[in-house]
């Protein structure tokens, strides 16, 4: 579980995101959505301690997160698919991460099977496609068998089969009790799989509610999450094309 209280995130003394209260529950697949620059990645980085808040607290599974301290073993994260040495193989990369986090390297084979890369695990990462690199990052996030999982745009680069695979993986993890928080722009996928929605905009949380409850608020002419999002975010819509202006 993620528990945030009175959080203020800032750059150069200027507030970029304020979150008075936010709880991301266990056993729930929560999607974090918002335009570029609304603070999705910043929030995820603060949850894992990469960014220090100007004020407030973040707790993951009851543990207070402090900037630049060791990531709790219960937290798995994949925030940057570019964070790898292209000369390393997937197996070597995952073993290195396991050792750095004090996790058993024997888990590497298991996660390679989960992300369906065991057959190419000894190929150098520099020869991997974007979708394959995303799978490596997800494998790294699963090394600790996390109770809480953070993923930043994990669907980018995945083909149709990969998207369906990830959809089922996230659903299975949430259904077995994992707290799953995913930042994404792909609203169609959110509609297929979400339990809960958090919308960011204007340096704050604009919505924090169960997906079904949010969809029950659809107004006249609204038929999708995209419609609800545009209204909540205060974005104008070109009614002749259905697109945001």
UniProtKB/TrEMBL annotation:
Domain ABC transporter: 2-227
UniProt keyword annotations, A-Z: ATP-binding, Nucleotide-binding, Transport
Superkingdom field: Bacteria
Single annotated GO MF: ATP hydrolysis activity
InterPro entries documented for this protein: AAA+_ATPase, ABC_transporter-like_ATP-bd, ABC_transporter-like_CS, P-loop_NTPase
UniProt family annotation: Belongs to the ABC transporter superfamily.
Protein name per UniProt: ATP-binding cassette domain-containing protein
